[in-house]
Each structure stands twice: as C-alpha cells, then as structure tokens.
Amino acid sequence: MRKLIKPLVFAGALIPFSILIARVFVYPDSLGPDPAQELAKESGEWALRFLVITLALTPLRQITDQVEFVRQRRMLGLFALFYATIHFMVWVAFLLVFRWAAIVEELVKRPFITIGFAAFLILIALGVTSTKSMVRKLGRNWKRLHRLVYLAAGLAVVHLLWILRTNIGEAVFYGALVALLLAYRLQRHLRASKPTPPKV
C-alpha cells in the first residue's frame, strides 16, 4: 500500500492541471470573457495552494509521527513550482504575448508583479536545489536556503491580495495559514533552543 501513495499523490496533484486543460480545449466558455486572466488566476492560486500544503507537511509529520508526510514534501513542492511556472507562462504568452520590453516594464513598474516574480524566482532556486546531490553539496546551507520557502509563500499571498483588491477573502485565508505555520515553526525553534534545566 505504501508504494501506491506516491503515484496516487502525483496523480492527484495533476488533477487541477487536467481541469485547466479541459477548460481550455473542451469547455472554453467556462473561462468567461477573459480566458487569459482566468487561467492566470487559477494557475497562480493552485501554486499557492501547493505551497501551503508543502509547508504543512512537516508540522503534520511532527504532530502525527507519520513519516509519510515528509516523503511527499519534495514532490508537492515541485508541483508548487510547476503551477507557478504555468502562471508565469500564461502571463508572458497570453497577456503580454511575448513582448519582452513590455514584460521588463511590467516587472519594474508594477510592484505586485515584482513581488510575484520574486516569489517565482525563490521557488525556482528551491526546485533546482531540491535534489539529493544538491543537499549534499550545500550541506548546512541547504536548510538555510530552503527556509526561504516561507518568504516565497508570504510574497505569493501579498501578490494575490494585490490582484484581488476587493474580494480578498481567499488571500486572507491563505495568509492566515502561512502565518500559523510560520508561528508553529518559530515556536518549535524557540522551544528547542531553550537550555535544558540541570537535573537536581
């Protein structure tokens, strides 16, 4: 049964992508009057969802003592990068039509795009260094680098908040989850760093 968990998680993580593909080629009317904006929104939100799920796996492992949670962490983190890449490509290909000068201008002049792009770059760095060989090469620096996942999640939440502007309930929800997970990590770190009282 354990051997089936990884393929099942992999297949499950592809369901949102399959739905997006179906909406484009089978049910295009479901994308509404601005298909590119809808695709960008959906892919970006799925990137954030997978990022939050990835952050939740270590606390779940610690609370439940089930090591299977962390065994899926790398793959789900890469799926966060996968959906973030789709989000970026939709923006580049359909919204700006590969007009590179306009892309650079948007990155410089629009802070919410700059913030989203910064989160994307962090995810790329984490994805590239997620292999076992990179873990060995980076040593202790690997953990320091991969703590930036919290920064990426925070930037992604701000990016979503800025895009939604008025209907911000979903972004606030994800922001609360990220804050809760960060608070849990800080609490664990502070507890571990406390000196053990001497035995009497």
Descriptive key words:
globular, mainly alpha, 11 helices, single chain, 0% strand
Quick one: overall form?
globular
Elements, N to C (H/E): HHHHHHHHHHH
Q: How many helices?
A: 11
Query: Helicity range of the residues?
Result: over 70%
Span of the ends, CA to CA: 48 Å
Quote the average pLDDT. Answer: 91
Largest sheet: none
Write up this protein.
There is one protein chain. The chain has helices at 2-13, 15-25, 35-64, 68-71, 73-95, 100-109, 111-128, 132-138, 140-146, 148-164, 169-193. The chain is mostly helical. It has one domain (2-188). α2 packs antiparallel against α3 (35-64), α6 (100-109) crosses α7 (111-128) and α7 packs antiparallel against α10 (148-164). The N and C termini lie far apart (48 Å).
Nutshell version of this structure?
The protein is an all-alpha fold. It has one domain. The chain is built from eleven helices and no strands.
